[in-house]
Fold this protein.
Amino acid sequence: MTLSETARPAHVDISADATEGRLLKRIFLGIFLFLAGWGGSVVMWGIPGLYLPALALVPVMYIILILISRG
């Protein structure tokens, strides 16, 4: 048995890579839509459209920080 035979996996699961790629695309699409919506609120309502969504997300971030700290 040579080194190249031991370093190469016997079975490569291509479906895991495809699933990971789809998940990554969905995450980026969600981030893009969130930022586009936030930008649209700034265009429609001006400065209040900028800070009110951030103010509304404070409890969400508080919960996320608690979840991160709990492990």
User: Anything to note?
Assistant: The chain has a mean pLDDT of 86. The chain is about 85% helix and 0% strand.
